[in-house]
């Protein structure tokens, strides 16, 4: 039996994933968490084989969680399930220690296949992502400016470009408005931009939103 823990801040999303996996005889969802704090408490008391993890969590992001688990040498294998496009976050997630990446809008059967494969210690990537990885290895490319952003800086960029105010971002990420302002300033500097309007245009042109 494959023991699975779900970590997503939206209860309806967790329910949807739970319902999808509930019909599978060899998979058992043994716990749920809405943020990093709940997840840490759960992992202390509940053993699991696969952690199904969202990228966009309040406080520590899913990418932060990946880094922490990797640094601690955790045996838990992580499958990232996110609404963000594969070409923007999948490679980051794999580099941070994830075993696979699935889009939330994908086929439920794909999620089941991914959980099974990840539980065996194998990497799971979609056909589109496999093609993207091959192209990145065989085609010389110039690194886009946003690829030099930290995980949190990229998250801030995407949220600003999605129309969220700094106060909204601070509340959602459980950070102070001052901290979010620092991230914004770093993004503007690294991308050579001047304001939120230019950030939004950049994000749209580069398929970040």
UniProtKB/TrEMBL annotation:
Highest taxon in the source lineage: Bacteria
An example Gene Ontology biological process: phosphorelay signal transduction system
GO molecular function annotations of the record: DNA binding
Residue span(s) of domain Response regulatory: 3-119
InterPro entries: CheY-like_superfamily (IPR011006), NreC/VraR/RcsB-like_REC (IPR058245), Sig_transdc_resp-reg_C-effctor (IPR016032), Sig_transdc_resp-reg_receiver (IPR001789), Tscrpt_reg_LuxR_C (IPR000792), WalR-like (IPR039420)
One protein family per Pfam: GerE
SUPFAM superfamilies, per the entry: C-terminal effector domain of the bipartite response regulators (SSF46894), CheY-like (SSF52172)
Modified residues (4-aspartylphosphate): 54
Record key words, sorted: DNA-binding, Phosphoprotein, Transcription, Transcription regulation, Two-component regulatory system
Chain ranges of the HTH luxR-type domain: 142-207
Protein name: LuxR family transcriptional regulator
Natural source organism: Caldimonas brevitalea
Phylogenetic lineage: Bacteria, Pseudomonadati, Pseudomonadota, Betaproteobacteria, Burkholderiales
């Amino acid at each position: 039996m494959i023991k699975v823990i779900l970590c997503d801040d939206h209860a309806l999303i967790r329910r949807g994933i739970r319902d999808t996996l509930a019909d599978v005889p060899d998979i058992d969802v043994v716990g749920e968490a809405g943020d990093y704090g709940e997840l840490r408490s759960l992992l202390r008391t509940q053993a699991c084989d696969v952690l199904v993890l969202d990228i966009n969590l309040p406080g520590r992001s899913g990418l932060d969680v990946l880094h922490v688990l990797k640094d601690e040498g955790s045996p838990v294998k992580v499958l990232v399930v996110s609404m963000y496009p594969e070409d923007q976050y999948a490679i980051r997630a794999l580099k941070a220690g994830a075993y696979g990446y699935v889009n939330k809008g994908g086929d439920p059967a794909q999620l089941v296949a991914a959980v099974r494969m990840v539980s065996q210690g194998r990497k799971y990537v979609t056909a589109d992502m496999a093609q993207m990885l091959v192209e990145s290895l065989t085609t010389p490319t110039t690194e886009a400016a946003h690829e030099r952003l930290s995980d949190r800086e990229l998250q801030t960029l995407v949220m600003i470009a999605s129309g969220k105010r700094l106060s909204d971002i601070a509340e959602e990420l459980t950070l102070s408005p001052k901290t979010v302002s620092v991230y914004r300033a770093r993004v503007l500097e690294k991308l050579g931009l001047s304001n939120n309007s230019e950030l939004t245009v950049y994000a749209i042109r580069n398929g970040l939103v």
